[in-house]
Amino acid sequence: MEELETRSGAGKGLWSKGWLYTRERIKKEKRLRSWPDPSDPVLPQIRTENGEDMMATTLDPDAPGRQQRVLEKEDRFYEKAVWVACWEMLRRGTPWQDIRAWCEERNEGWRAVAPFAVESKHSSSNSAWRKMCHLASDSECANEYEAAVYGLLSGNSKAVEKVCRSVDDHLFAYYTTTLTREFELYLHTNFPDRVPAMTALRRSTSANEGLTNRATAQEAFNNLIMRLRQNSATKEESAQPLKIIEHYLLNNDAENLVYTTGMAASDLDSMRGGEETESVIERIRKAPAQLLPESQVVLDPAALRIAAHIYVVTRAIDPMEPQAETVGAEENVLVSYLQALRAQGRRDYAAMYSSRMRHDKYVAVLGNLLQDVSGASQQKEMLTLMSDDYGLDVVAIFDEQVRLILQKYFTLRREEVPSRPLETLEDYAGEQTRLFPGRRIREDFMPAEMDEGDILLCRGLEWFRLLPGEWKVTFSTLGLGMRMALVSGHVSGAMLLARTFPFQSISEHKTVEVLGKVVNIMDKNSPIQPPPGSQEAMQLEVLRQQSRTYYELEQLVLAILALADWVSVERAYSTTPRAASTPPAELKAAKADLDEAVAPLLQPGFLREAADDSEAVDLKWIRICYIPEILLAYQCALYSAGPMISRDAYIELMDLSTTIADESTGLTELFVQSGRMRELVDGFAQAGKMMLVMKGVNGKKFRSKGREGKDLSLWETGGGNAGVTNGDDGVGIGLAPAADADAD
After folding, report:
1. Nearest CA-CA partner of 245 in 308, 176, 178
2. DSSP assignment, residue 54?
3. Domains of the chain with bracketed CATH
4. Whole-number mean pLDDT of the chain?
């Protein structure tokens, strides 16, 4: 408009002047020549200022069309500006009365009457007036905007489409002209006697296109959308996400919008690559060569939000089970929206949207999404939403979450599994031969840091602690997580689980809901024990069986932790020169804790009761890889404890050898299968030599209380102290005094 006003030379302040330049030119010509009467068929020959065209000689509105002549150039721009203003007001929905008033204010009274019908008490339908507008839009108009105004008022879509620039313009023109034509057709069909006869005259083809059924209407609209997508002027705008949604809604095809958008989500995920099992988007087909236009809806957060809520609304309207061939694609829309919310850190609505999916689908989606939820308060809130508010299968969701974490971080191919996931020992060639038998426990054998998988697994298992009751599934999943961590070599993860989920704490927490009281079911020395054979006793035994695997795996990990505690105290003590003195209580406590932690590993049934074949394979592998390593380190610890704490440690070594040799424990078989029997035998041989050395140093025999028949003389290889020397000059470093021996 501003450009037209400028080019017309009128500006904003001269809208009421009309055809100013043409009028002035006519006045000038009248002063210079004789002027014929209006009835004279011969018209004056006047050219425009530039001399290119013949100029109209009268100022009545239809003069240019009637005389087949033009106005001055500036007046043509002015004329176009007026019609553009009328068109834009109609386009914006300005009431006809306001448009008429606008024309009258600018001394364009004829425009106030011609395009906008005067209300008639005798013809409320204005059918004759619309017919005249239709004829005017097909005749010679001053410009395309004049034709568009008449065409819009009469239902002539061809005239209106010429001035449409945007998709919205085309849609406005389509619906306005279609409604006008349908109204005319309705009048002509149902009230032929009340429609003026002239309306039955010539009608354009478009005016006779009655959209009498939905199929015809949808076909016409689809053809329009196809034209808009192919038109260079509207092609780019038509591909915008919100326009795509608009087209489906205007076509009353919301369900197809959801389905097609879901297919686009599938295509995008297929093109992304990766294993299908890693994605919660259902891949319905192979990646196409070209993406659907609806893929833009998936990629646009605002449009995706609209599509997702359209799915929710359509499912609420039609509660029947969706068709199997379409439900996967439709749910992809909701899954994509949940992923968008996840990327924004908005997980509060996950349970609500997931409740609109099938069971298997929401289990997979939430199992993936809940990995981000951390903190007890957030987990409790989410658990309440899922279980209480929306009735979701939380056990299946939590199981799926743990499965996904284990699959991603803890599943290794057989060739990738480390043969020695735990390496506690290192060679020792120092001078303290009485403390270390050629090797010692490494100070740094514990993993330094937790990796992402360890943290996620711990977070995933935390849900089971919060889950009311569910004893069996809780300990089954805890056991699965612990054994997978050990099998895959994630010792750090196993340590984290043992510290985060101590068996005693979980048992006491869960038994409140299972038994109605706080009980550590593995504490058989508890003063509160039910009578044997009672219902409660049998129930406790069932609970023990269901939780045994995790309990014993925790004991294995606690033994490793006890080794770490021992070596930290022992190394601080052994590396500091000191006179012979009573060992510190800290060292004795570390030794006692280590003895207590290793004791369960020596029991005959340790880690030998599996719930299924898969667990049996894993437990056997864990026994072979971890127990020999732990016992060899324990052997070194006892060797060092002899001179540092008490020579009774050597007697404990004898007990250890006896226990390992016991067939019921199966420990000898573990050392053979792990190929570490020679290390075990060498360790006991070194202990035998050290026992002779210690006996020679103190010069007296002793007998340990409670160990009749198990004194140092059993290990003698010759008479007296022949050939045995101390081997150290001066005072020994960290040696236990002779007074520590049990004198007779």
Report:
1. 308
2. B
3. 2-199 (no CATH), 241-392 (no CATH), 425-435+449-703 (1.20.190.50)
4. 83
